[in-house]
Design a protein that fits this description.
mainly alpha; 12 helices; binds fe (ii) ion
Length: 241
């Protein structure tokens, strides 16, 4: 099984869809466990349904934000190739740890990743992306949870980590697109200067901004290549006409 495979950490997706695989349910979790049991449903569709189930009613603003982050993930499909659905799934699910029924440590990347790992046995890379999204390790350190986070979840692939930062840090709290600088300022204003989230941003802002820049450049390069190829095709067709 590849890192990006879905949904089970130990089994193939198609196998899981037709087997009654035993699962561990977190006893504190009181949400409907939206098991990916429909064979034709891909990872992104499943993730969207799962995120809606967990967030829409208790946290409508988080749900709006998650929809915007997922839309940004879709916009990165040209540079992600076969990983596009995995990134979209991570975008849908990255904030589910805020849901009251999923709170355990109170640190949403860890709580969300634990739910995905322990309750629905999501793929290893999906859990790692959620656990470490948007420089979560730095905020974990502010909360005294860095060792715990590192012990339970390894960092995700760098390119996908960057892509998820791009999506999260260019999407506002209501799902609107915004520049990374505005997003960082908005987060600081919303939480206040003494909050662990704002303190962590003091350390992570350069990395967050750098990731957005890197991904933006890749996307621009890809768009330019596609445009050039299209113009060449048009020239060939025009000459042949
Ligand atoms: Fe987010």
């Amino acid at each position: 099984m590849t890192d990006g495979a879905f949904p089970c950490r130990r089994d193939d997706w198609r196998d899981v869809s037709c087997q009654d695989v035993p699962r561990r349910f977190a006893t504190s979790v009181n949400v409907r466990h939206n098991r990916p049991s429909v064979g034709h449903m891909n990872i992104a569709d499943w993730a969207g349904d799962t995120a809606r189930t967990i967030l829409e009613t208790p946290l409508p603003r988080r749900w709006a934000h998650s929809q915007g982050v997922a839309a940004q993930a879709r916009s990165l499909a040209p540079i992600l190739g076969p990983d596009a659905d995995l990134l979209a799934a991570a975008a849908w699910l990255h904030d589910i740890g805020y849901a009251p029924d999923l709170i355990d440590t109170g640190f949403h990347p860890l709580d969300g990743a634990r739910y995905l790992s322990d309750t629905v046995q999501a793929s290893d890379m999906l859990c790692r992306l959620v656990a470490h999204h948007s420089c979560a390790l730095i905020e974990a350190a502010e909360r005294g949870l860095a060792d715990q986070l590192s012990r339970e979840f390894e960092p995700a692939r760098r390119d996908l980590t960057d892509a998820l930062i791009y999506c999260d840090m260019t999407t506002g709290p209501d799902g609107q697109r915004m520049p990374v600088e505005q997003r960082l300022a908005e987060i600081r204003a919303r939480y206040g200067p003494e909050h662990p989230v704002s303190r962590a941003l003091g350390w992570s802002a350069p990395e967050l901004t750098g990731a957005v820049t890197r991904v933006g450049r890749r996307l621009a390069g890809c768009t330019l290549t596609a445009r050039t190829a299209l113009q060449s095709q048009v020239r060939v067709l025009t000459a042949a006409a």
